[in-house]
Design a protein that fits this description.
With 755 residues, this protein is of the alpha/beta class. It contains 29 helices and 21 strands. It binds a DNA duplex (15 and 10 nucleotides) through α3, α5, α9 and α25.
Length: 755
DNA sequence: GGACAAGTATTTTTT
DNA sequence: ATACTTGTCC
């Protein structure tokens, strides 16, 4: 078959693998997405598997979309052999774990007690709101028990398939979590809502409890394909195992070295479990890299080889060595940004690397600010990958809350969110009175509003409403807005419903104040309206739930904020996974930054930092710059920094310069001519505060940890002195005199010795 | 109900 | 430094 001919032998072996479990260990840039899509095409076209019997699961919508696109007839391999017909494509089950589970749960909703098929999916913001509510109800202080951390514990439990009833509480903290977990889960049920983790956990529980249901799905799905298998957590693994339980045709693609989501429950050891649980599996290694130069690949290999418990892949490329890796020391983070921006310009001029093929990667989002400022200062465009996320904007979340409430009036979280947005005289006090009253009436908040309307119409209630005339009026007026919208729900198209929601809610008037900010927010809502357009011709009673589901499971900007202006991409190392660029700048290559300081004393966490570094390095096709600083300001505190340990793992012969070997002044000049000017500026202060003691070059000093050493460089800042000390046998250390336990030896305690 | 001061925490974030 | 939350006052 023509479309298989462009695969290399290993890729082809994977694509054409026979029945039974198959594990493909695929290095970066080895064409794993291609293998996955060709495998699907192969199964349908050559093995005669009906498309509706195939399920391919991914982690991101983007990956799912990419697979579908590549299978679509418009995206043919050269020579025109079309992989699948539109009809076949449509029958495939391709989606994220969460989307696939949501679909199953809706179809089987009658067997998950407490929820009906209209359930809404709560995103992280909603989940936190619900945790806070649970804390409040349990009279717990949300200062002492931070909602995010409690939510994290609950999420971890759910990912380990531990429901509230099975949650083991030994410590006091766990006891608190246990109580909140129980209440949280009840609240979800009362709101007819599921959180992300529930989608997976409830599906697995359903399969475990109902033989008939699991059998039906097992029989239907003959072939299960899983992308990024190293990122699966326990529920996901369990789910896959259950689904593949009958036919055992499980095709998993993994790279242990790119597992960077353990803090979300991902466990690369699932790759090892796969090998134990499916002992007869086929194993295929994809080791040819089509992306990076030999030098970059070799540097990556030296970084990752320090990790244990991994299959050591022998990555190779036919691309040739290319240029060396550049290790750069900047004076501080300002200079780091200046260097990066300047070098991007130079690359474009000298090596014809388009700026849009450059990427700047960092460990934490906070690091993007200085880079952005520098790009703005120079008037250079840039693409910030996931800044404020579209769906996290207040106006977007508010309108979505309206729509969710219209769909599922019992959704108390959405109700609390918008009952006073825009402001309509229903403050926190009135809301909590309403919620209490609803509790007494044994109904939802919305139910209470309905009761209020009945009371207004003359019905006598066992519990009369407790509101002042003013509050009562405000509530009634809001209730009528809501009931009108609900009445419209199944009558008008989704875009129409969207528009009428905007105007009836008062949101439109709110954003018509003529300010720039209001205009931006209005534009965002119009952006959201564009999404509703996809459902313009869908039956009104189906459109809203479909739209809400799509939006709930596509929380990333996913094309919405993608501006194609060009310019370098600014992104976190996590966000970089799966991407590639001609030139990659990794900034903040300092100890504490990468590896992050929170990972310093944990071996597993440190290995993950290493993988993160590896992911960054292997994004680069031709040029790789690793930038660290001499000193760095964190949380307003300036301190000397140490180059990342990962830099030391790259052999010298792969690296162009090692600036930190020379003393600061030369080092500065070696990097760029203007650097020394900046350096001189910062290095020549008259101390405003007297410094405790001064060291001069040549002084012999003693350090409590490093022993005896000699000062080889020094410079003064406004309130401190920085020295470099050569400790025989231990290398050169940079130390702050105010901080380091240093003592002068064999010399009188002279003060003010300027070098 | 909104404005302002004070206090606090600050990794990553596929869904 | 700073962004975000909470508390207090008008």
């Amino acid at each position: 078959m023509i479309f298989l001919e462009e695969l290399n032998p290993k890729q082809r072996e994977a694509v054409e693998a026979g029945d039974g479990p198959v594990l493909v260990l695929a290095g970066p840039g080895s064409g794993k997405t291609r293998v996955l899509t060709y495998r699907v095409a192969y199964l349908v076209r050559l093995s005669g598997v009906a498309p509706w019997r195939i399920m391919a699961v991914t982690f991101t919508n983007k990956a799912a979309r990419e697979m579908k696109e590549r299978l679509a007839p418009t995206h043919l391999p050269p020579h025109g052999s079309s992989p699948l017909s539109p009809h076949q494509l449509q029958q495939l089950t391709i989606g994220t774990f969460h989307a696939v589970c949501a679909r199953i749960l809706r179809r089987e909703s009658e067997v998950i007690s407490g929820w009906d098929s209209n359930f809404v999916i709560y995103d992280s913001g909603d989940q936190l709101a619900l945790i806070r509510q649970a804390l409040r109800e349990l009279n717990l202080d949300d200062k002492k028990h931070r909602p995010t951390s409690i939510h994290g514990r609950i999420s971890t439990a759910k990912n380990e398939l531990i429901g509230p009833e099975r949650f083991q509480a030994i410590t006091y903290q766990e006891e608190i979590v246990h109580r909140v977990y129980k209440r949280y889960q009840e609240l979800l049920r009362d709101n007819n809502a599921l959180d992300f983790d529930d989608l997976l956990m409830k599906t697995v529980n359903l399969f475990r409890q109902r033989d008939d249901v699991v059998t039906a799905y097992q029989e239907r799905y003959q072939h299960i394909l899983v992308d990024e298998f190293q990122d699966t957590n326990m529920v996901q693994y369990e789910l896959v195992k259950l689904l593949a339980g009958k036919h055992q045709h499980l095709f998993a693609v993994a790279d242990e070295d790119q597992s960077i989501y353990s803090w979300r429950g991902a466990d690369y050891r699932n790759v090892l479990r796969f090998r134990e649980d499916f002992p007869s599996h086929g194993l295929i290694l994809l080791e040819e890299n089509y992306r990076s130069t030999g030098t970059i690949l070799e540097a990556a290999r030296h970084i990752i080889r320090h990790n244990v418990h991994r299959v050591d892949k022998q990555l190779f490329t036919h691309r040739g060595d290319g240029v060396k890796v550049q290790v750069i020391e900047a004076y501080d983070e300002q200079e780091e940004a200046q260097y990066v921006a300047g070098q991007i310009v130079r690359l474009q001029a000298e090596s014809r690397v388009p700026t849009s093929h450059c990427a700047v990667m960092y460990r934490t989002n906070a690091q993007s600010r200085l880079l952005e400022e520098e790009f703005i200062r120079r008037g250079m465009p840039y693409r910030l990958v996931r800044g404020t996320r579209f769906y996290e904007r207040k106006e977007v979340r508010d309108i979505l809350a309206y729509l969710r409430l219209i769909h599922n009036p019992d959704d108390g979280v959405s109700m609390a969110r918008i009952i006073n947005a825009p402001p309509r005289g229903i403050g926190a006090k009135t809301l909590s009175a309403l919620e209490n009253w609803a509790f007494k009436l044994d109904t939802s908040t919305f139910g209470a509003l309905k009761k209020l309307q009945e009371e207004e119409a003359g019905t006598h209630l066992a519990w009369p409403s407790p509101f002042s005339a003013r509050a009562g009026k405000a509530l009634l007026s809001f209730a009528s807005v809501l009931t009108t919208l609900i009445a419209d729900r199944d009558q008008i198209t989704l875009p129409e419903l969207f528009d009428t929601t905007l105007s009836r809610s008062g949101y439109r008037d709110l954003l018509q104040d003529g300010s720039n900010e209001a205009e931006d927010r209005w534009d965002n809502l119009q952006e959201l309206r564009r999404v509703t357009q996809q459902f313009a011709s869908t039956d009104p009673s189906d459109a809203l739930p479909l739209f809400l589901e799509q939006v709930a499971l596509v929380s990333d900007a996913d094309g919405l904020t993608e501006d194609n202006e060009g310019g370098p991409a600014l992104l976190t190392l996590h966000a970089a996974k799966g991407l590639e660029f001609q030139a990659v700048f990794m900034v903040g290559m300092d100890e504490g930054m990468l590896p992050h300081k929170r990972s310093l004393d944990d071996i597993e966490a440190m290995q993950e930092e290493r993988r993160l570094c590896y992911v960054g390095v292997t994004r680069a096709m031709d040029h790789l710059y690793l930038v660290h600083t001499f000193r760095r300001t964190t949380f307003g505190q300036s301190a000397l920094s140490t180059p990342s340990r990962f830099l030391h793992d790259i052999p010298d012969e792969l690296v162009d310069i090692r600036p930190h070997v020379s003393p600061p002044r030369q080092r500065a000049r070696a990097v760029s001519a203007d650097r020394s000017v900046v350096w001189a500026d910062k290095a020549s202060p008259t101390p405003t505060h007297p410094v405790r003691s001064h060291f001069a070059i040549g002084d012999t000093v003693a350090h409590t940890k490093f022993g005896e050493g000699v000062i080889i460089a020094s410079h003064l800042t406004s309130d401190d002195q920085e020295v470099e000390v050569a400790f025989p046998g231990q290398g050169i250390k940079r130390l702050s005199v105010n901080m380091a336990p240093l003592e002068k030896l064999d010399q009188e305690t002279a003060v003010g010795g300027k070098q």
